[in-house]
Every structure is written in C-alpha cells, then in structure tokens.
Design brief:
InterPro entries: ECM_Regulatory_Proteins, FN3_dom, FN3_sf, Ig-like_fold. The chain has about 180 residues and is an all-beta fold. The protein has strands spanning about 5, 15, 25-35, 40-45, 50-55, 65-70, 80-85, 95-100, 105-110, 115-125, 135-140, 145, 155-165, 170-175.
Length: about 180
C-alpha cells in the first residue's frame, strides 16, 4: 500500500496512495519530473482528503520520478517515491477511409484522433506519377475533402500524423475518381 501508478497511457497516469492525512491534518506536496531531466520538476499541492490524482500532459515513452510528500501538522511521514514510465505513442492513423468519390473530388477521413497529434498532412497524387499535393489539416479534425482532381483516375492518398514530439506516422490508401459526366 505505497504510492503507485495505474491507468498509464502515453500522456498520463493516475497516482494512488494510502490514506495518511485528512482534510484537517495537512496536505500533500506532489513533485514529478522526467528522470532524465529533473530540472523540469513540476510541483502540485493536493488536499489531505485525496488518495489519488491524475497527472496528464506528460511526454510519451518517458520515465518520471514521482515524490509524494505528506505535509502533516500532527505526525512526520516520510516522502513516498515511485518511478512511472509512460507508454509509447499510440500509432495513428490506423485506418484511412475514402468516401463520397466524385469525378473531381473525394472525401478522406482517418482514425483515431489523438491529443498527441498536432496536425495531419494529407498527400495525394495520381498513379502512376510523381506530382504530389499536400493539404494541412488541424490535429483536432479527422477528415478533409480533396478537390480539383482528374476524373477516372486512381490517386494514392497518404495521411501523416505529426505528433507534438516531432515524430511522424503515415498510412496510405488508394482512391479512384468517378468518370466525368458524359454528354449524350
């Protein structure tokens, strides 16, 4: 029954600890920092009534040193420490869907949408060929419409997720535009 972490993700974890204090007898000071860079320490004060806290906005694949210091006005409690390593970033996108295909446009959507993604780049170009165009899409969105295309053409569409950490992950799909309107 010591300080420990649960619900670990790439950007958060929940700390749990035994009940040492109460609202009346004191509060906790929580300190945490990446083990590789202890100068980036963050400090938080937590009411004595709490026995858990969610830490978020963390870096992926990073080991954090965590110290819980009970600040009691009744007893001395030694600080409790633990080390928690966040998970690797979720791989995104895991699917790219092409829909609403017309002669000159189609709709591209992808999943999942992750908080750790700052923006998406949608690259598209006809096959075979090497003329590629790029659309920038905000990280909060998961779809866009690609327009001004040639009818009856196969396009290679690549969606690249650009993470806050600077990493990139891509996934491609093929899309075909419809034949143009025929004159009778």
């Amino acid at each position: 029954n010591r300080l420990h972490a649960t619900d670990v993700t790439s950007s958060s974890f929940r700390l749990m600890w035994p009940k040492l204090l109460s609202q009346e007898t004191g509060y906790y000071t929580l300190e945490y920092a990446p083990a590789a860079d202890l100068a980036r320490k963050r400090t938080q004060q937590v009411s004595g009534a709490h026995t858990s806290l969610l830490l978020s906005d963390l870096a992926p694949e990073t080991t954090y040193e965590v110290a819980l210091i009970p600040e009691s006005n009744v007893h001395y409690f030694p600080p409790q420490t633990t080390r928690v390593t966040t998970l690797a970033e979720e791989i995104s996108p895991v699917q790219v869907l092409i829909s609403e295909s017309g002669p000159r446009s189609f709709h591209v959507s992808w999943a999942p949408v992750l908080d750790s993604v700052i923006s998406y780049q949608v690259l598209y170009g006809p096959l075979p060929g090497n003329s590629v165009k790029v659309l920038e899409v905000d990280g909060k969105h998961n779809s866009t419409v690609v327009e001004h295309l040639a009818p009856n053409t196969t396009y290679l569409v690549t969606v690249t997720a650009i993470y806050r950490s600077g990493k990139e992950k891509s996934l491609s799909a093929k899309a075909c535009t419809q034949e143009g309107e025929r004159l009778l």
